[in-house]
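Annotated sample (chain length 625).
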Amino acid sequence: MELFFDLFFVANLATFTAYHTISDADYLLAYIGFFGILWATWFQITLHDVRFARDSIYERVCKTAQFIAFVGLALVGASFNPTAKKTNNKNFEILCYVLVISRGTLAIQYMVVLFYTWRAKYTKLYLPLGLMIGTYVTATGVFGGMIPFYQPSAKPPHSLYMIWYGIMIAEAIVVITISCCWRMLSFKKTHLMERMSLLTIIVIGEGAIGVTKTVGRIMSKGLDVEGCFLIMCIIVILVFIWALYFDNFPHGHYGTIRQQIWSLLHFPFQLAVVGVVEGSQQIAMARYVLKNVAKGSADLQKICKQNLDGVKLRDALLKFADYYNFDKKLDTYKYYYDIQDHIESIGNTTGICSPANVASYTADNWPTDFVFIDNAVQNGVYAGLGVKMPIDKLKALQEPIDIAEKSWWLMYMYFWSCFCALMLSLIVFLILIRRHKADAFDIVSIVIRCLVLGAGGAALAVLSNKERLVDILNSPAILPMAVVLMFVVLCGDKLTALWCNWRLVKSGEPYALEYEEEHHHGGHGGHEEHGEVHMTDGEEYMHLHHANLHRGRPDLKQAHRVSAGWGSQSDAAELMRGDTEYSPHVYRNSVLSTVETCSLPLGSPGTPPAVAPGMGSGGYMPVAQ
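Output written by the structure step:
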């Protein structure tokens, strides 16, 4: 059910991306703003579900209401632009109704939780649950109170929409604060980390959908070596983002407050992922446009320099125009007829490409008809990509290629800004999830990320030099630069992890456990001495100390070294002969089966499984007979 719900998130994101190509600052702000509303709504629903949701008719009814709300968000997203000069009252009114439905449903869900808490006499939870209900009831009231301001005849304050974001920020702060103050409502031993990781995969998957669309746009005339290379760069960027995130994914509990911060930081992280992926596609299309524009100008000059005249010149230019297939798309049809008219005019002009005239032409002094054909080709190539352009600029009779040139500056800025935000988020993630003393891996991985972050800042500095920016945009170097920087980070992680694990094996020290062995402190009234044998109902339970984890077992040392070599967070719980301790990584049926047990695969999100039936007190497993 939760994964099904996530599909509505990605459907909204895909729909909004299709309608809002980032071609100016207003569209960029609208993209960030809508993503914030979408993510905040998903986050609040998820915080409830990971703690209280159970599959039932009631839960399915609530989910249906939330599905309806997300469909409403898709309707709103098609024309969402809060920074526009003229407010779209109808659109914002619908959004207020959608937010009322989503927050009202959450208030009802927490009321149901409070009711069953009251029946169970959990008095300590009355206040925090009451605060949660009050938060969502207040949010519902505020969103509902905004509806009259967005009636068709109303003239609301232009910045009234900022109330949405203020309420959503307050919601997140209140909910996280409550979960930190009342630990019974914390997210420990929930699948919150799994939910965040699944959404990250979905956001990256949206980038994969965009890649397929980009391929169709820039490969419409057949395979192109440079185009194929840029598409491969985008795919590699997607893979590297996935690897950078999941190679350092937390596998165990690492602190209640840090977990909340980690969860909240997924908003800027996932927004950065969307920006990098969307920016990569825009860069590839910009390179496609610039390359074809340059080719069109060069081909026009080449045709004229052949000194053709009359019908032969006309036929050569008609063949040139057919290459672009402007008559095949509605967006470019008008440019096809413009080109045809000017070609006819050139064919009826005698001596326009004679040797004497060609020798007198300069870069800024070509015949008017040739200039119009060149401009039509430029506009047609960009319009043919299906890019959504701001309607107000089209009404102002701005040419598509002029809009494109301004959007490329913005595209370059937000691509590298999101790249830097991505690296910064990864650095903070590394710091938050560490449960043990920092080692060489932590230091090197953070230093390398900081250096790459600096390189991204240097790329942003190019914006101050227009000539260099034009040179970079006219080359296919931007995406390979990003690929190389990410590759450096990944190589640094892997090589440092291998070296650290080799040093650890050589030292003979045990690997640090990823999961807290909580049963050491429970079930017996205090901390049990390691190495003791316990008797419970006639069965023996053995717990062996980890200090001698590797001694006398070089085969296990080598096996674990191989397993840990590809990850910085080796879920290292090697077993020595006779070890019967229960490990959260794997479910053990007997001592004999543990010898062949492998550690948890790298990048598998989730929480440790609960202690299985048959476990003794404290989580100890009976010794196999």
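Annotation: DSSP finds 21 helices and two strands in the chain.
Annotation: The beta strands are 533-536, 539-542.
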